[in-house]
Amino acid sequence: QDEEKWDFVLVSDIHEVGSQKEIKRKKFLDELSKKGFTIKKIEDKKLFYGVRAPRQIFQKYQWLLRNPDSRWQSPDAHQDVPVTTRLCLAGNTQSFTNTPCSLPPEKLHDLMKKKVFEASFPLHEKEEVREFLKEKWARWRSLFQHQPIEKIRCYFGEKVALYFAWLGWYTRLLGIAALAGSVVFISGITIFSSSQVSKEICEANTTIMCPLCDQNCPFWYLSDTCTYAKVTHMIDNEATVVFAMFMAIWATVFLELWKRNRATVVTNWDLYGWDEEEEELALELINNLQHEPLQYQHSYLRSTIVLILVLVMIVVMIGIAQALVVYRVVATALFSQSEVELLREQANTVAVVTGAVLHYLTIVIMTKVNRRVALFLCDLENPRTFSQREKNFTMKIFTFQFFTHFSSLIYIAFFLGRINGHPGNYVRIAGKWRLEECHPSGCITDLFIQMAIIMLLKQTISNVMEYLIPCIAHRLRKERQRPTRRSTVLGEEEEEAEDPCKKQWLNNYRLNEVNVFSLFDEFLEMVIQYSFTTIFVAAFPLAPLLAFLNNIFEIHLDAIKMMRLYRRMVPRKANDIGVWLQVLEAIGILAVIGNGLVIAITSDFIPLQVYKYTYSPCMAENSSGVDCSTGYINHSLSVFRIQDFEPQTRAEALPSFNGTQSKEYRDYRNADDYSYTVQFWHIFAARLAFLILFEHVALCVKLVAAWYIPDVPQSVKNEFLDRKHSNLRKELRWVVPQEM
C-alpha cells in the first residue's frame, strides 16, 4: 500500500515521437530518475507521471535543518517526515531540477511555459486528516464551529494554516468592531428625527437654494432634502468621532493580540526560530551539492526604473479616478435633462450611484492589469530568492490595488464640493460642465453611498463568483475527461481496472488549478477589506459589520474551495504571515490619518462645534433651555444674487420664486463680493487644530497600546528559557566527565 503513495503527478499532452517536446520531457524525467525518484506512467487522454522522492532527500533535510535546541540528540535518531514536509521537498526538488544539455538550463517552470508539461500537483489522498477536514470543516453546516488549525497544518502546511488562523482571529475581533459600529449606527437612528439640524432643514420650506446644475435644473427648497438630511445626521454625529478613535485603537490591539497568538501557535509547531533563507539554501543544496548561493546585489538603475514605472501606474489610477469624476459631472448634466421625472429630480444621486457601480467595474478590470504589471516589475527587479520575489510582488500589487480602490474615495472625501467654485463662478470641465457638488445634505452622504455600494458589490458578487466559477469549471473538466486507454507501469501494460492510481490521478487532475499566488489572492482580498473597514470607517460605521458577516462565509468558502474544488496546494513552511503584517500596520496608521481627515474635512462635525461655541444662541445671556444647534443651518448658508448668474447658465425660476432676487447655497462667503467670511477662517483653523489633535492623540494611544501588550506571551518566553537551560545542562554533562 505504501508503494502506491505518490508525492506529485506530472501531466503532459501526448506528443509525437521524436518531437522537441517529447525529447525534453524524456530528458527531464531521466534527470529525476538519476536523483533516485521513482516514476510511474499512466496513459489516458493525457500522459500522467506519478513521482515519488527518494528517502535520502528527507534524511538530508532532517540533518541540515534539525532543531538547534535539540542538537544533543543523536543525528541518527529516526523521526518520521510529516506528509507536508515530504510534499514540499519533493515539489522543490523537481522544481529545481534542470534538463541536461540545454542552454539556458530549463527547469520545470520553464518546461510548463513551453507546454512540455501541462500541470504538476501533489495529490489529495484518502487519508484520515483529509476526511476529517472534509466532514468537519469544509461544509456550510460547520459555519460557526471552531477551525481545526492543527489538522489544517498537517494537511496543507504551515503557510495555509497561518492564513486560516489569522483570518479566524481577524473575524473574531471584527465582531467587537461590528458591535461597536452597530451601536453607533443605531444611536444615529434614535436621533433620526430629533436632531435640531435635521429639524431646521425639514422646516426650511421658505429657504430657496441655487440650482444644482445649469439651465435645466430649477431653484429648490432646502426642505426638499429633509430625508437625506436625516440620513446624513444619522452617521455624522458626535458618536462617529468616538467610534473613529475606537477603531484606531482596535486596529492596534488586533495586531498586537495577533502577534501574541502567532507566537503561541508557531512555538507549538517548533517553528518560532525558523529561518526562511536557511530553508531555501538547504533545499538548493539538497538538490545540488555544488550549488552556490546567489549573492545580494542592488542595482540603482533597476530600482530607479521600477520606481518610475510604479509612479506611472499610480498616476494612471489617479487618472481613472478623475475619469470617474468626469463621468459623474457629465451624467449629472444628462440626467438633469431627462424626460423621466425621477432621473431629473435625483440627477446627482443617480450619478453618484452609477458612478459607484462603474468604480466597481474599474476595480475588477484593473485588478487583472495590476497583477500583470506587478509581475513584470518583479521580473525587472530580478530578486535573489522566491521569498524576496513574493515580498516585492506583495508590496507592488497592494500599492496598485490600494490606489485602484481608494483614489475615487479620496477624491469624494476630501475634494468633492471644495474645488467647484461658487454660483456665478463655477469651475468647469472643458469650459462646459461644472464640477459636481456634494449632496445638499452634506458631503459625507456621497462617501457613505460610494463605500456602501462598493463593499456590498465587492463582497457579494466576489464571493458568489469565487464559488460558482471553480464549481462550474470543475464540472466541465469532469465531463471532458473520460478514461479511455490502458495504463503502463515501467513499460508493462496492465488492464485499466487493475490500476488503483488511475482513478485517483484523474480525479485530482479534474480539479481546478492552483499556483504560487493562490493563497496570496486570499490574503490580498482580506487586506483590502481591512482597509475599507478601518480607513474611512467614520463615514460608514456599518463597514465592520459587513466585513464580519462576509468573513464568516469567507472562511468556509475558502475551505470548501481548497478541499473540494481545487488541487492540493504545495505545502510551504512559515512562522508568520510575512510582509502582510507590515502592510496591516501601515493601514492602521493610514486609518488614523484617513478618519481624522474625514471628521475634520468631510463631515459637518467641526463647523457645528464652531457654531455652538462661537455663534450660537447659547453664547448669549439667559440662553438656558435653548438647543445650541439652533440657527446653524441658516448660519451655514450664503446669499447669491440672481443677476450675477452667468447668462448662458441661468436657470429658469419657478413662478413662486419670482419675487425673490437672491438665493442661497452652502458655503461661507460674503454677499457683496463672494469672498470668504471670517467664520470660514474660524472653521478652517478649527478643522486644522482638530486634525492635529486627533491624529496625535490616536497615534499616542496606538503606541501605548502596542507597548502595553507584549508581542510574545510570558508563557512562550519562559518555555524558551527552560528549553535553553535544559539543553545547556545536557551539553554540560558530556563535558564534565571528560574533565574528571
TrEMBL record:
Keywords carried by this UniProt record: Cell membrane, Glycoprotein, Membrane, Transmembrane, Transmembrane helix
Localisation: Cell membrane; Membrane
Domain Anoctamin dimerisation: 109-149
Organism the protein comes from: Indicator maculatus
Entry similarity comment: Belongs to the anoctamin family.
Bilayer-spanning residue ranges: 173-192, 239-258, 305-327, 347-366, 397-416, 527-553, 574-601
Protein name per UniProt: Anoctamin
Gene Ontology terms: cellular component: plasma membrane
Protein's UniProt keywords contain Membrane: yes
InterPro entries xref list: Anoct_dimer, Anoctamin, Anoctamin_TM
Keyword hit for Magnesium: no
GO MF annotations, alphabetized: chloride channel activity; protein dimerization activity
Pfam family, one: Anoctamin
Topology class, membrane: Multi-pass membrane protein
Domain annotation Anoctamin transmembrane: ranges: 152-719
